[in-house]
Design brief:
2 domains, two-stranded antiparallel ribbon, single chain, rod-shaped, about 290 residues, mainly alpha
């Protein structure tokens, strides 16, 4: 009994695990594509900056050179050339740093792709375990040739062919049977207790009525014996009236107790039936939710 909820939760977790991995894999792929696009844009921007700086440096150097009269010693650089060279060196350093960062990012992306591929492969293995476990999953063209999937095998496996779904259905059926058995046992116990209480109340009421009848008989005998005295007759008549009133009150009390017990039994049976109906409806909704999730 204690293993049934654990088995049900484990199967539900396994069934819901593959879609979550699939969505995570898609999100990782989208992030990787965005990072690659950003890197390509940065590279294009860097290339344009380099091309512009190179063209400006070439123009400055071309204007400063004198090819007709070469000098043995180079002329000192102008401030503009110094600034251009410093910018070129800074751009080259930035390019090297960015290339290193891109390499690190590519390595991280490759690792993430490997992890995502392993996760997706595990999910696909879980999803295709029912199809691969059947003996008609593949057909062989020749005794020594590899397996070739047929058109029937290439289709998606049915939801009812999954062993996990079968296990969930078995667990749900077992839970429903256990709940019904417990409800039946509770109903039987309530009915037995109610019958015992009714029998005890009826027995006590019968004893009370018998005692009252005996008392009335005794009083009648006493009245017959003491009928000679007129004063005694009045007293006896009053006593008889009181006894009759007490007996009637006792009968009324017994009838009320029996009615109360019967009402309690009927209400208990109705409550138990309502609980059984609610449990069956909840179990049916759980089965429908599981089928919709699959």
């Amino acid at each position: 009994m204690l293993t049934i909820p654990w088995l049900f939760t484990s199967t539900m977790r396994d069934l819901l695990r593959y879609p979550r991995y699939h969505t995570l894999h898609q999100q990782q792929q989208e992030q990787q594509q965005q990072l690659l696009q950003q890197q390509q844009q940065q590279q294009q921007q860097q290339q344009t900056i380099l091309s512009t700086t190179q063209t400006t440096s070439q123009r400055v150097s071309h204007t400063n050179t004198t090819p007709l009269s070469p000098k043995p010693h180079p002329t000192p650089l102008k401030p503009e050339q110094v600034e251009v060279q410093a910018k070129l060196e800074q751009h080259q350093q930035q390019l090297q740093l960015q290339q290193q960062q891109q390499q690190q990012q590519q390595q991280q992306l490759q690792k993430q792709q490997q992890v995502a591929a392993t996760v997706a492969g595990a999910g696909k293995q879980v999803a295709s375990s029912s199809a691969t476990s059947s003996p008609q999953a593949v057909r062989r063209s020749a005794p020594g040739s590899p397996a070739v999937p047929t058109k029937r095998d290439q289709t998606q496996p049915k939801v009812t062919d999954s062993p996990r779904l079968r296990r969930v259905v078995v667990v749900v059926v077992v839970v429903v049977v256990v709940v019904v058995v417990v409800v039946v046992v509770v109903v039987v116990v309530v009915v037995v207790v109610g019958v015992v209480v009714v029998v005890v109340v009826v027995a006590v009421s019968v004893v009370v009525v018998v005692v009252e009848v005996v008392v009335v008989v005794v009083v009648v005998v006493v009245v017959v014996v003491v009928v000679v005295a007129a004063a005694a007759v009045v007293v006896v008549v009053v006593v008889l009236l009181l006894e009759v009133v007490v007996a009637a009150a006792a009968v009324v009390v017994v009838v009320l107790v029996v009615l109360v017990v019967v009402v309690v039994l009927v209400v208990g049976i109705v409550v138990v039936v309502v609980v059984v109906v609610v449990v069956v409806v909840v179990v049916a909704e759980v089965v429908v939710v599981v089928l919709l999730l699959l």
